[in-house]
Amino acid sequence: MHLGYSNKRLIKRHTMTTRLAHWGWAISLLFLLGSGLQIFNAHPVLYIGDQSGFGFDNAVLTLGTQGRAFPAWTTIPSGMDLATGRIVHFFFAWVLVSALFLWLVSALVSGHLWRNLRPTARDLQSLGTDIRTHARFHFPHRRTYGPLQKLSYGAVLFALFPLIVATGLAMSPGMNAAAPWLPELLGGRQTARTLHFCVAALLLGFFVLHIVMVVLAGPLNELRAMVTGWYRIDEGE
Amino acid sequence: MCATRITRRTVLRLGGAGLATATLGGCKVFDRLADPADPLRHYMERANRLTMAAQRGLLDREAMAQEFQWFDIRQPQRPNGVTDPQDSDYLAHVATGFSGYRLSVSGLVKRPQTLSLADLEAMPTRRQITRHDCVEGWSCIAQWTGVPLSAVLDRAGLLPGANFVLIRCFDTIERSLSGAVKYYETIDMVDAMHPQTILAFGMNGSALPVPNGAPLRLRVERQLGYKMAKYIRAIEVVDSFAGVGGGRGGYWEDRGYAWYAGI
To answer: Any idea of the CA torsion for A119, A121, A123, A124, to the nearest 10 degrees?
Structure first.
């Protein structure tokens, strides 16, 4: 870490909306994961198709054949409690969706989406360099997002988030009556449930990678940027 | 050399972050939410009302649950909850093949009814192949035959203030210190009058078996399985369910599950 940076290299990196949305997502994902594993434990088998095979076999994953599938420290609450898990899950589902909606509207209106998140031709050209830089544990502090940042944030915001919401809604019998095309598009209600689990695993993977990147890139600077908005960039940027 | 320096520091930092996460999970800080009296839990439960308002407000209230084909029935309907009631009045009906069974329809109705299975079977029936979604997460497709609840309610004639249909069941699902708790459920008129909401007496082409709720069970196809009461003894039309059981509108609702089970 370099000392003696002047305040000239402090830039306003994140808007208030981005920071609020970021922490809304972070908190709700933590609770959604814990309560989601709680809900999964109520029937720890995943299937492909419309229904669950009891008289035939369409299971793709079976956990917890001896006792509970996910241990107490991973679930919210810690004991087996489907009712409470559902209360927590649906509350934070609304938080996640609200934060996503507010951020999306703001990012569209302000041009943030187009200006800072859209991968440009130059980004794609320098993707290889960016990967090599990261592989060498060197994390540039740029004025704008780098190619890998744009691609990973874009994947979470525009692929994983919409998919986790769609696969979640495809499990709702009320939603399915009004929009039968939704579970059909996703391969049936039980396939949607399986996909919901897989997308949750991908989001957890992103979360772990994200934390590792923040820690490697300098956690104080990164955290300050996401709390106050102010971010210290490298010399020459 | 640069990489080595960062790696060592990284290991320490990652270890610290990991420790913090493990502590947070291990200390069970969120277990207070499991307490039915917890104010934060009450606040979070309001999201259920938001879900219901959104589904009822934004989606078509008349929408029909997806119906499947005969070849989609690939297994017997999986029974859940009580599957073999030991209540003496129920066992007496089983012994006589439900010949003495009478469904009573009372409450806020103009003409209270007492209907035998033959009476119900003589009414216009509906047959539907639908997917049963359990709150636990599994689904099972079966064919259901029965009388639309709306037809029974029309026959009885609703009085003003008829807001909910209360289903009282034969089966004792829990024995507590205060006595036996028999299963019960409530639905509102949006679901009660829906064409797919039926009092089913047939399943997969034969009479409804005991594990699946013989002689009569409810089908509410746009909600989860726990709304679809089995072993129906009586129907009461009520203006409120506040005074019934724990006051939350059903056996599972009294144990923390949402009254609206459309999600």
So the answer is: 100
